[in-house]
C-alpha cells in the first residue's frame, strides 16, 4: 500500500494519531472508536513513512487474539513493500517469556523451564498447604495464589516482604517461600513470575537492558488502563531516552482493579513523560445515539476522569428498555421471550448477549433457555486446553520435556493406572521432601535403595521407563507425530476408548482436535534453541485467554460484563440491575470501588449495537432466601428521554405492558399456568408467577392486586381459576 493511501477511510482524529510525528502520545480511545485500526495503521505509517526498521517496533496487547489480528492485518497492509517479521507483537506475558527463553541462563532458569498454569499453581499450593499441616479450610490455596501473585505483581520476593509480626502474614510468607523453592527446583514459572523474572533480568544485567532499550525505540501499548504495577514498571524500564511511546487506553473502561490493574497508570505516564500529546478518539462506530447518550450521562457521575464524549453519525435507535420483573423467573422468561422474538423476526441467536455482574446469575437463564430448547454457550467457560484429557496429554509432554516437573508427575503417575496408588505416592513425596529431591529423583532414590515392596518397585520402574522411552523413541519426529505417539504409547487413547459412555468418545474427539492443533502450530520464530515440544507447551499455556472449543455458531451468548469487554452484539441484555447486585454490595460504600462499578456498567452499555434492555426484579431467591432489592442507582443515572419502562401486564402499573406467554411449565402442576389469573377469597385476584414442590407440598407464588406477592399451598388455598 502507498503511504498516502494509509489515511483513506480514517476520521480526523484517527488520521491525527496515525500520522503524528514520532512523539509520546496518549490515545484516549472511547468504546467502538476504532483503536485497533489506529494501532495497526500507526505501525504501517512508522514503517512506510518514517522509515523505521521493523526490529525497532514493539506492540503490546492484552490478548493473544488481538496480537494475532495485529500481525495479520499489518502484513496485509504492507503487502510486499516491507517484511514485518522483526516486529515484536504480543501480550506482556508473551513478550516477557520470549525474553526469558532468549536469556534463560542470565535469568537463572533451566533451558527447558516450563510455565505453570493457574490450575497447576493451585494444585502445587494445595500440596504445600497439606505438607506443612495447615488446615486447608482456613488456609485456602486460592487465597495463597492471590497473595503470591499480588506480591509478584508488586515486584516483591519473600525476602523483601515485612510481616510486622502479623501471624497471618508470616504464614502466607512461609507458603510463598516454600512455593518459590518448589518452582525453582522443578524449573517452573507461573504467570506473575514471567514478568517479575524478566524485569529482574534487565535490572541484574544492564547490558541486556541497554540492548533492548536501544533496539525498541517505537513502543505501542494497547489497553493501557488495564496495566498493573509491574507491567508499568516493565515498560518504564524498557523505554530509553530515544524511545517514543504510543499508549492507547480509556480510563472510563478500567474495570480490572480487583486483579491488580491500576487506572492511575495513565496519569503516571503523563507525569513520567510530560511532553505527551493527548488525542481523544470519540467518534463511535458501534452503537446508536440513544445508547451513547445514556453511556455518556452515566459515566459523568464519576470524578477525576480525563474526559471524553462519545458520538456517532448513526441513527437515534430505539430507547433503552427497562423491565421490572416480579422475581428472577419472571425476569428470565421476559429476556428469553425477547430473544425468541428477535430470532423469529430473522435475527440470529449469536447476535444476542445476556450480561450479568457475577457468574451465579447465569443459572436461571440457563434453565429457562434449556426449557425452551434454545441453544446457548457461556463465554469464557472451560477452555479447550483445560479439559481433563488434554491436560493429561500435556502433563505427559511436560514430563518428557522436564523430568523435574512435580505437578505433571503427580497428574499422570497413575493415569492410566500403573499400580502406583496414594500410599506409594505419599512415600515418594515424603522421601522427596526429606532429601530435597524432585518426585522423579525420589523414585530413583527409592529404586536404588530398594526400600519399597517388590511389586511397588516394579510399578515405579515401569513408569520411569515409560517416560524415558517416550522421550527416546519420539525424539526427532515432527511435533504432531511425536504427540500422537505419546497419546498412543502412554495408554491414554486406549483408556478413553474403553469408556462406553458418550464422554469417552468426546474425550477421544478432543485428543484428535489436539493433534489438529499441533499440525497447525508454527514454532519457527525465535525457537532455534528450543525443542518443538517445549515451544508447543509454552504456546498452550500463554494462550490461556483463547478457546479452541467448537461451539454451535448460532447460540445465545451468556457472560459476565468483565468477559464482554472488547465484544459487541446487536441485542444486549444487562440483567440483575439491582442495588446489592449491580453495584455489588461490597463496593457500594467505597467511592473508589463504586466508581469502578459504574465504569463496569458503562462497559456493559457500550457493548450494545442496536438494542439494549436492562432488567431487574422486585424479589429474588438469593443464597436460599427471598430478598428484595431496589433498582440499581445506575438506572436512575440514565437520561429519562433515552429510556422506556416496561412492566408486567397486571394492575401494578398502567405503563407500557408486556404480555406474558401462557406456557405450561409441567403437566404435573395441576394445570396451573404461569401468568394465569386466580381468585382467593381473602386476597382477591392475582397472577401466578412461580411454582414450587409436588403433591401435597405443591405451592404457587401469586402477585395479588391488593396485597402483593404471596406463596400459597394449593391444597389449602381454595383458589378459583379465572
From TrEMBL:
PROSITE patterns: UVRD_HELICASE_ATP_BIND, UVRD_HELICASE_CTER
Keyword list, A-Z: ATP-binding, DNA-binding, Helicase, Hydrolase, Isomerase, Nucleotide-binding
Keyword Glycosyltransferase included in the entry's annotation: no
UvrD-like helicase ATP-binding domain: residues covered: 8-288
GO molecular-function term, one example from the UniProt record: ATP hydrolysis activity
Superkingdom classification of source: Bacteria
Enzyme class of the recorded protein, top EC level: isomerase
Reactions catalysed according to its record: Couples ATP hydrolysis with the unwinding of duplex DNA by translocating in the 3'-5' direction; ATP + H2O = ADP + phosphate + H(+)
Pfam families with a match to the protein in the record: PcrA_UvrD_tudor, UvrD-helicase, UvrD_C
Residue ranges of every copy of the UvrD-like helicase C-terminal domain listed in the record: 289-566
GO biological process: recombinational repair
One GO CC term on file: DNA helicase complex
Binding site for ATP: 29-36
The enzyme's E.C. designation: 5.6.2.4
NCBIfam families documented for this protein: PRK11773.1
Family, per entry: Belongs to the helicase family. UvrD subfamily.
Protein's recorded name: DNA 3'-5' helicase
Organism (species): Candidatus Arsenophonus lipoptenae
Gene that this sequence comes from: uvrD
Amino acid at each position: 500500500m502507498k503511504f498516502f493511501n494509509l489515511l483513506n477511510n480514517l476520521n480526523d482524529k484517527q488520521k491525527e494519531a496515525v500520522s503524528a510525528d514520532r512523539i509520546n502520545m496518549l490515545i484516549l480511545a472511547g468504546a467502538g472508536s476504532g483503536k485497533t485500526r489506529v494501532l495497526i495503521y500507526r505501525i504501517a505509517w512508522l514503517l512506510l513513512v518514517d522509515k523505521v526498521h521493523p526490529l525497532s517496533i514493539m506492540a503490546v496487547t492484552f490478548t493473544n487474539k488481538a496480537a494475532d489480528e495485529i500481525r495479520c492485518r499489518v502484513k496485509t497492509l504492507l503487502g510486499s513493500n516491507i517484511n514485518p517479521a522483526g516486529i515484536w507483537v504480543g501480550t506482556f506475558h508473551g513478550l516477557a517469556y520470549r525474553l526469558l527463553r532468549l536469556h534463560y541462563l542470565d535469568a537463572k532458569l533451566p533451558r527447558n523451564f516450563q510455565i505453570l498454569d493457574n490450575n497447576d499453581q493451585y494444585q502445587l499450593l494445595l500440596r504445600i498447604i497439606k505438607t506443612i499441616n495447615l488446615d486447608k479450610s482456613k488456609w485456602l490455596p486460592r487465597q495463597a495464589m492471590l497473595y503470591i501473585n499480588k506480591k509478584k505483581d508488586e515486584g516483591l520476593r519473600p525476602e523483601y516482604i515485612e510481616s510486622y509480626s502479623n501471624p497471618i502474614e508470616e504464614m502466607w510468607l512461609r507458603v510463598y517461600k516454600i512455593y518459590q523453592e518448589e518452582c525453582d527446583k522443578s524449573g517452573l514459572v507461573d504467570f506473575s513470575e514471567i514478568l517479575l523474572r524478566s524485569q529482574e533480568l534487565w535490572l541484574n544485567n544492564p547490558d541486556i537492558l541497554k540492548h533492548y532499550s536501544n533496539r525498541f525505540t517505537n513502543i505501542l501499548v494497547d489497553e493501557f488502563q488495564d496495566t498493573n504495577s509491574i507491567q508499568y514498571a516493565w515498560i518504564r524500564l524498557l523505554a530509553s531516552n530515544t524511545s517514543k511511546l504510543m499508549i492507547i487506553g480509556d480510563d472510563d473502561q478500567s474495570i480490572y482493579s480487583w486483579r491488580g490493574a491500576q487506572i492511575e497508570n495513565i496519569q503516571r505516564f503523563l507525569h513520567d513523560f510530560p511532553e505527551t500529546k493527548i488525542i481523544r478518539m470519540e467518534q463511535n462506530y458501534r452503537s446508536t445515539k440513544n445508547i451513547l447518550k445514556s453511556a455518556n450521562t452515566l459515566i459523568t457521575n464519576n470524578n477525576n476522569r480525563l474526559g471524553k464524549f462519545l458520538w456517532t453519525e448513526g441513527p437515534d435507535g430505539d430507547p433503552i428498555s427497562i423491565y421490572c420483573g416480579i422475581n428472577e423467573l419472571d425476569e428470565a422468561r421476559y429476556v428469553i421471550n425477547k430473544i425468541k422474538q428477535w430470532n423469529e423476526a430473522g435475527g440470529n441467536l449469536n447476535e444476542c448477549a445476556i450480561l450479568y455482574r457475577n457468574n451465579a446469575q447465569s443459572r436461571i437463564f440457563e434453565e429457562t433457555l434449556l426449557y425452551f430448547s434454545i441453544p446457548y454457550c457461556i463465554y469464557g467457560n472451560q477452555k479447550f486446553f483445560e479439559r481433563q484429557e488434554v491436560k493429561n496429554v500435556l502433563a505427559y509432554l511436560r514430563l518428557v520435556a522436564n523430568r523435574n516437573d512435580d505437578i505433571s508427575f503427580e497428574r499422570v503417575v497413575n493415569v492410566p493406572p500403573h499400580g502406583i496408588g496414594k500410599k506409594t505416592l505419599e512415600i515418594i513425596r515424603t522421601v522427596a521432601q526429606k532429601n530435597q529431591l524432585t518426585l522423579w529423583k525420589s523414585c530413583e532414590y527409592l529404586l536404588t535403595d530398594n526400600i519399597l515392596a517388590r511389586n511397588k518397585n516394579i510399578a515405579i520402574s515401569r513408569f520411569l521407563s515409560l517416560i524415558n522411552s517416550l522421550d527416546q523413541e519420539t525424539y526427532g519426529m515432527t511435533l504432531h507425530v511425536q504427540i500422537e505417539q505419546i497419546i498412543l504409547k502412554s495408554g491414554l487413547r486406549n483408556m478413553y476408548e474403553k469408556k462406553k459412555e458418550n464422554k469417552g468418545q468426546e474425550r477421544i474427539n478432543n485428543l484428535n482436535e489436539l493433534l489438529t492443533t499441533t499440525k497447525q502450530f508454527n514454532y519457527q520464530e525465535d525457537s532455534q534453541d528450543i525443542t518443538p515440544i517445549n515451544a508447543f507447551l509454552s504456546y498452550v499455556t500463554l494462550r490461556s485467554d483463547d478457546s479452541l472449543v467448537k461451539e454451535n455458531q448460532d447460540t445465545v451468548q451468556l457472560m459476565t460484563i468483565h468477559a464482554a469487554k472488547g465484544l459487541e452484539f446487536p441485542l444486549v441484555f444487562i440483567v440483575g440491575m439491582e442495588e446489592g447486585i449491580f453495584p455489588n454490595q461490597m463496593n457500594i460504600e467505597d467511592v473508589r470501588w463504586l466508581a469502578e462499578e459504574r465504569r463496569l456498567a458503562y462497559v456493559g452499555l457500550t457493548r450494545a449495537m442496536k438494542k439494549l434492555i436492562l432488567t431487574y426484579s422486585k424479589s429474588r431467591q438469593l443464597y436460599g432466601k427471598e430478598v428484595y432489592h431496589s433498582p440499581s442507582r445506575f438506572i436512575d443515572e440514565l437520561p429519562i428521554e433515552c429510556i422506556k419502562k416496561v412492566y408486567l401486564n397486571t394492575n401494578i402499573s398502567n405503563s407500557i405492558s408486556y404480555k406474558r406467554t401462557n406456557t405450561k411449565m409441567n403437566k404435573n402442576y395441576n394445570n396451573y399456568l404461569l401468568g394465569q389469573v386466580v381468585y382467593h377469597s381473602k386476597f382477591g385476584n392475582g397472577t401466578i408467577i412461580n411454582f414450587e414442590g409436588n403433591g401435597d407440598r405443591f405451592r404457587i407464588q401469586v402477585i395479588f392486586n391488593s396485597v402483593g406477592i404471596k406463596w400459597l399451598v394449593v391444597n389449602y388455598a381454595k383458589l378459583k381459576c379465572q
